[in-house]
Design brief:
The protein is mostly beta strands. It has three helices and twelve strands; from the N terminus they run αααββββββββββββ.
Length: 180
């Protein structure tokens, strides 16, 4: 577990040893598992347009929205070495566009969905979530979190740094990527 805590990785031998103990393996993140990302968007108050489709790639997605204000949620699932969900790291970004400019990015924060009992969201890395370019043709949003996995009364055994990065365009299109 020290190797996992210090490097965020497991050797194949370490992983095989952990898998011999299912109760422990259920609480250990699988560093080799691919990211499972998802997202959706909803129109915000006063916006009568339907949300555009969300297309997903391996670790990214695109919200195909139009002008108006939008509430978006982007997430990435972190599985244990047994394949169970340790947590789903979510980022919410609310924004408004007028067809050519990003007029506001007024909500940007993270939260956990369905966390295991060993998962603790400790805050943001690098300060609070950031956005740049509001008022221009694009805005870049960065939400970077810090999660610790801790066995009660023993110690914390892993620190993880999930991220959601988003580029919002004045047209309403929003591209994002997420990693665990």
């Amino acid at each position: 577990m020290e190797h996992l805590r210090d490097t965020g990785t497991l050797t194949p031998e370490q992983k095989q040893t952990i898998l011999k103990y299912p109760k422990i393996a259920a609480m250990v993140p699988d560093p080799d598992a691919p990211a499972e990302v998802f997202g959706y968007s909803l129109p915000a108050g006063g916006n009568d347009q339907a949300a555009g489709p969300t297309t997903l790639e391996s670790a990214s997605g695109v919200h195909h929205n139009g002008r108006g204000c939008w509430i978006t949620h982007q997430g990435v699932r972190k599985p244990s070495t047994l394949g169970f969900t340790l947590y789903i790291y979510m980022a919410r970004v609310d924004y408004c566009v007028d067809g050519s400019r990003v007029t506001s990015v007024h909500q940007k924060y993270h939260y956990l969905q369905d966390p295991d009992v060993v998962v603790y969201l400790r805050g943001y890395t690098g300060g609070t979530p950031r956005d740049s370019g509001t008022g221009g043709w694009r805005s870049d949003v960065a939400i970077h979190g810090h999660i610790e996995l801790c066995a009660v009364k023993i110690a914390c055994y892993a620190s993880l740094y999930p991220r959601v990065d988003m580029v919002i365009y004045g047209s309403g299109r929003a591209e994002w990527s997420a990693v665990t």
